[in-house]
């Protein structure tokens, strides 16, 4: 039961599809380069090429967001602009804590549902579609006697052993595919969980505003 050229092609295609499931929807992100040991202050960066490597400086990479995780910040920023900045021209100052709280609560709701859609629902749909096709392909290879783990790997000596090896391979690949979950992050936090941060800040601002209004 040696792997044929056609089987090798199918295996390569499936590995490519698995990579697409894990990485295909993570196309954006931001990286900030700072000199090692830099602790603050200002620097004149005029004329600097952010992509140029300077051998005289050791650079540290700080990942700010991954995928669409930046949307969590955008939602909060828009909420503050509308419900703090714009609202300050429309409502009394004493009412601002309440409008700010409402803006942050709306940002929390948007962050939660967007994060769930991007980090859970969409990956699950892709993984399920890939897994169904991959399982069908492996079962077909076993039944037709063409299953193999590849050159240099132990080869099955019976259909039962081939099925056992195929099941183990499928379980391993499925576990790898789970990496597609929670890839849209802001400061390494899956974006949907930042909804709790915005919500907590909103409630704190509202409580502070209520206390000030009663004093």
**What profile does the largest beta sheet have?**
4 strands, antiparallel
- Low-pLDDT parts are 1-6, 31-62
Strand content: 5-15%
Q: Helix/strand-derived class?
A: alpha+beta
- The largest beta-sheet arranges its strands as 1-2-3-4
Helix content: 55-70%
Task: Describe the model.
The protein is of the alpha+beta class and 215 residues long. The chain has one domain. Helices cover 58% and strands 9% of the residues. The chain contains five helices and four strands; from the N terminus they run H-E-E-H-H-H-E-E-H. It has helices spanning 5-23, 70-86, 96-143, 159-177, 194-214, and strands spanning 29-35, 59-66, 185-186, 189-190. Strands 1-2-3-4 form a four-stranded antiparallel sheet, covered by helices on one side. Strand 3 and strand 4 form a beta hairpin. Helix 1 runs antiparallel to helix 3 and helix 3 (96-143) packs antiparallel against helix 4 (159-177). The model is unreliable at 1-6 and 31-62 (pLDDT under 50).
Can you tag this structure with a few keywords?
alpha+beta; rod-shaped; 215 residues; 4 strands; disordered N terminus; 5 helices; four-stranded antiparallel β-sheet; 58% helix
Q: What topology does this entry show?
A:
Blueprint: H1 5-23, E1 29-35, E2 59-66, H2 70-86, H3 96-143, H4 159-177, E3 185-186, E4 189-190, H5 194-214
Task: Write a brief caption for the model.
Helix 1 packs antiparallel against helix 3, helix 2 packs antiparallel against helix 3 and helix 3 packs antiparallel against helix 4. It is built from 5 helices and 4 strands.
């Amino acid at each position: 039961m040696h792997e044929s050229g056609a089987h090798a092609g199918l295996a390569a295609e499936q590995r490519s599809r698995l990579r697409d499931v894990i990485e295909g929807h993570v196309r954006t992100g931001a990286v900030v380069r700072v000199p090692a040991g830099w602790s603050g202050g200002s620097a004149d960066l005029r004329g600097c090429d952010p992509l140029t490597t300077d051998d005289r400086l050791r650079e540290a990479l700080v990942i700010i967001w991954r995928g669409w995780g930046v949307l969590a910040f955008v939602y909060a920023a828009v909420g503050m602009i509308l419900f703090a900045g714009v609202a300050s021209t429309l409502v009394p100052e004493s009412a601002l804590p309440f409008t700010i709280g409402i803006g942050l609560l709306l940002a929390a709701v948007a962050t939660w549902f967007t994060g769930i859609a991007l980090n859970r629902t969409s990956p699950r749909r892709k993984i399920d579609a890939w897994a169904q096709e991959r399982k069908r392909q492996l079962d077909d290879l076993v039944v037709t006697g063409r299953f193999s783990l590849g050159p240099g790997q132990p080869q099955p000596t019976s259909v039962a052993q081939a099925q056992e090896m195929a099941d183990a391979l499928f379980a391993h690949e499925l576990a790898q595919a789970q990496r597609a979950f929670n890839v849209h992050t802001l400061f390494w936090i899956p974006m949907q969980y930042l909804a709790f941060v915005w919500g907590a800040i909103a409630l704190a601002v509202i409580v502070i505003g209520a206390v000030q209004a009663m004093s």
